[in-house]
């Protein structure tokens, strides 16, 4: 991960926009995942808890286990925002997170849909404050996070 990829202006835009979102992480995370399931309903079966498959996105989005997943996703975003000046310090963590996603059947290609859903959620939350510059800053940050997570697909599992 390149630490100097985001300008100070982009870092400030990300921090300010995230400050407005991070006060209600579950609420905004539900918007993100609702959009994700709208864009790609085939992702729904990836989310199973105690061998239970959800019949609908609404059922999934209401499940306490899934709400915990939303909290974790929002914490990952929060970690990235908190470490904008030193994104490389998250490299190993994000690579391992990528491995976990691969293990449950997530495809690397799905991250572009997640990115679209993240931008949708930010636009929905920020309204007019979601300027083209804010959008571009988030695209840069998300791209760096995904690049690090994708390395989890490239690393062979130990013992195999």
TrEMBL record:
Principal subcellular localisation of the protein: cytoplasm
Reaction equations catalysed: Fe(III)-heme b-[protein] + nitric oxide + H2O = Fe(II)-heme b-[protein] + nitrite + 2 H(+)
Residue ranges of domain Globin in the record: 5-154
Keywords noted in UniProt: Cytoplasm, Heme, Iron, Metal-binding, Mitochondrion, Oxidoreductase, Oxygen transport, Transport
Annotated localization: Cytoplasm, Cytosol; Mitochondrion matrix
GO molecular function, one term: oxygen binding
Gene Ontology CC terms, in alphabetical order: cytosol; mitochondrial matrix
Family: Belongs to the globin family.
PANTHER family cross-referenced by the UniProt entry: BLR2807 PROTEIN, NEUROGLOBIN
Function statement: Monomeric globin with a bis-histidyl six-coordinate heme-iron atom through which it can bind dioxygen, carbon monoxide and nitric oxide. Could help transport oxygen and increase its availability to the metabolically active neuronal tissues, though its low quantity in tissues as well as its high affinity for dioxygen, which may limit its oxygen-releasing ability, argue against it. The ferrous/deoxygenated form exhibits a nitrite reductase activity and it could produce nitric oxide which in turn inhibits cellular respiration in response to hypoxia.
Protein name: Neuroglobin
């Amino acid at each position: 991960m390149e630490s100097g990829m985001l300008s100070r202006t982009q870092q400030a835009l990300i921090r300010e926009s995230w400050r407005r979102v991070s006060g209600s992480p579950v609420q905004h995370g539900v918007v993100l995942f609702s959009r994700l399931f709208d864009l790609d309903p085939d992702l729904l079966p990836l989310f199973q808890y105690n061998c239970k498959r959800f019949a609908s996105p609404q059922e999934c989005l209401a499940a306490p286990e899934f709400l915990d997943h939303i909290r974790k996703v929002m914490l990952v975003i929060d970690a990235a925002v908190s470490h904008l000046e030193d994104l490389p310090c998250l490299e190993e963590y994000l690579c391992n997170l990528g491995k976990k996603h691969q293990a449950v059947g997530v495809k690397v290609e799905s991250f572009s849909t997640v990115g679209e859903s993240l931008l949708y959620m930010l636009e929905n939350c920020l309204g007019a404050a979601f300027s083209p510059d804010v959008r571009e800053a988030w695209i840069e940050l998300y791209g760096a996070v995904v690049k690090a997570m994708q390395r989890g697909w490239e690393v062979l599992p130990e013992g195999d």
